[in-house]
Amino acid sequence: MVMLPKPLRTPLLHTLGCELPIMLAGMGGVSRHQLAAAVNQAGGFGVLGMVREPVERIRQEVEALRAINDGPFAVNLIPAATERRLLMDQVATCLALQVDAFVFFWDVDTGLVQYLKQEGKQVIYQVGNQRDADLAQSAGADVLIVQGHEAGGHVRGTTATLSLLPQVVANSDVPVVASGGIASGGAMLAAFSMGAQGVSLGSAFLATHEANAHSHHKQRIVDARADDTVYTTRFSRNWHEPAPVRVLSNAVTRGDYDEADPDTCIGEQDGQPIYLFSTDSPLTGAQGKLDDMALFCGQSCSQINAITSVQQRIDTLLDEVHIRIAALYRDSR
Ligand SMILES: Cc1cc2nc3c(=O)[nH]c(=O)nc-3n(C[C@H](O)[C@H](O)[C@H](O)COP(=O)(O)O)c2cc1C
């Protein structure tokens, strides 16, 4: 049983059924069962990043996660970025597997939210602006994740986490989770003090032993400073629109490939080619020009100084929260 400081004991724990108000962000390719299980085992909420994955992989990952532990988890899908037939098959597979919760992102698919609510499922929507928050809530979402502009990966909005968060909290009847810019106890406490009931961490969990990211990607996050990240639309292959992402600066973001043939193959992953400008980040086993791939990373890298286990990462976060609370109390006397 984890000793939780008071600001972290929120109703979200009851909603999600976990001990800690810390969620794993659904990172495509990176958040597989080993990582989700480790977050579960440390007391947090596991999320399998299954965007555009074939149904066989979803089945394998859900079964593998359940074989390790029985903690609460969700499957993350991105409806707008997934071909409709595949999306319907993904959802049907999750229902057949009796998956209880879903995390969705990007355009709000109100019909899908309503359908899953009728099926008795929990729906969590990651949003990056007030309009999406309102849409998701009126469709029936149980929890909102507010993603700020600092976030790594695809970035939905243009407002910083600590500016968007209190506004969405003020306009919501459901628990709100903060995401983007958070990889330390201090940042967590800031989010909780502005009304968040939980946090959803991407980069902080990518830089762990259990994440399915390539070690080059993990090490670059550890080495990076906040201003080494770039907000760009250069990585748009495999996505339905030229959407902005936050990545670590590399040859692509510097424009070195601007004149290159977009069909240039720069590496391979699991026997499949990885093309220039692809949104596929290098996973374990990737080969080729790793540094020229999409190295998704949030500005939270300023708070990430080592590749650790998930348990160590969470222990450090909680220690930092305790230290910050003690310091605030001591200094206010
Ligand atoms: C490598 C990586 C991949 C991501 N892939 C997804 C995804 O597939 N689905 C999704 O909803 N969000 C995705 N995101 C965004 C996260 O959900 C979250 O908003 C972001 O990681 C928060 O910022 P942080 O990295 O600073 O914690 C991704 C983020 C990263 C870093």
UniProtKB/TrEMBL annotation:
Ribonucleoprotein in keyword set: no
SUPFAM superfamilies xrefs: Inosine monophosphate dehydrogenase (IMPDH) (SSF51412)
Keyword Oxidoreductase in record: yes
One Pfam family per UniProt: NMO
GO molecular-function terms, A-Z: dioxygenase activity; nitronate monooxygenase activity
Top-level taxonomic group: Bacteria
Keywords for this protein: Dioxygenase, Flavoprotein, FMN, Oxidoreductase
Name listed for the protein in its UniProt record: 2-nitropropane dioxygenase, putative
Native organism: Alcanivorax borkumensis (strain ATCC 700651 / DSM 11573 / NCIMB 13689 / SK2)
Upper classification of the organism: Bacteria, Pseudomonadati, Pseudomonadota, Gammaproteobacteria, Oceanospirillales
